[in-house]
Amino acid sequence: MTLLSVVQMNSQNDIEANFIDVERMIQQSKAEGASCITFPENFICFAAGKQRETAEKFEFFQQRLESLAHRYDIWIVAGTLPCPFRPDGSPIPDGRVRTTSLCISPEGTEARYDKIHLFDVQVGDGVGGYQESKHFEPGDTPVVVKTPFGNIGLMVCYDLRFPELALTLRHQGAHILTAPAAFTHTTGQKHWQLLLQARALDSQCQVLGAAQQGWHGEKRQTWGHAGVTNSDGKVLSIVEESGLQLTTVLFDREEQQKIRTSMPLMQHRRRLEY
Questions:
Q1: Which of 105, 217, 218, 260 has the fewest C-beta atoms under 10 angstroms from its C-beta?
Q2: Rg (CA), the chain
């Protein structure tokens, strides 16, 4: 058994202020005995139109996060950072970047996942329409990383709406799914908790939903309610307060195995053609 933390933030465009919050949450997580902490999407900088500018400092931010992981002896799922190059090192053309989630151990970066599903939708909020594909290039590779406390399948925000990704990660050995997010207030209110539970039920993995909450500038409002569901879809914790928050929950591999054994979904699943 181990303890895992998820963070709720209200990140703005002040990177240093955001890093202060990051270290504060790491300190609190360690004080509560956690082995891993997951941060939300855009946790280092939440500033529309500044993705490419922020991405130019990707490796600098990565090194700072690696230093924090080493200093506090904790695993960090580093929400998302904009990255100007692909995993093979090739630059991304047309001024676009990738939404990248890093899994960092006390020894350094262990894995990188680039968000596969991009949020190109119409939402009835202050922004109205979102077109992530205009600024971001999608990734194409599911990623599972081995840790001392279980295998982590990495997802990001809109990925939660696609059960086939969660199932792929489970087939690749995941015990835990991380979902750093910045759900809009409109869509989050309707679907955030339901999606955390649904992906846990699909995959029989524990799902860690780190979240942005509150206003980011004058138009963008995120839902928050960072939360965790167990491998049977039970909500273990949901943050109800606003602003910077942390919740820490137990991950029990033995309990998970009992859930998977009593209802062996992966063995029962049949491949269907669409």
A1: 218
A2: 17
Q: CA separation (Å) from 211 to 8, 55, 61, 168, 196?
A: 5, 21, 20, 23, 12
260, two tokens: 């998977």
- The residues with which 100 forms a beta bridge, in sequence order, are 81, 114
State the average pLDDT over residues 182-210: 97
pTM greater than 0.70:
yes
**Phi and psi at residue 53, to the nearest 5°:** -60, -45
- Band (pLDDT 50/70/90 cuts) for residue 271 is confident
Give the C-alpha separation, 225 to 97, whole Å: 27
Q: Which residues pair with 154 in a beta bridge?
A: 178
> Is residue 155 a contact partner of residue 99, using CB atoms and an 8 Å limit?
no
Burial class from Cβ neighbours inside 10 Å (0-12, 13-18, 19+) for residue 255 reads middle
- The residues annotated as belonging to the active site are 41, 115, 157
Query: What b-and-e string marks burial along 116-129, b requiring 16 or more CB atoms within 10 Å of the CB?
Result: bbbbeeeeeeeeee
Angle, vertex CA 29, rays to CA 150 and CA 112, nearest 5:
50
Nearest-CA neighbor of 192 among 41, 28, 37? 41
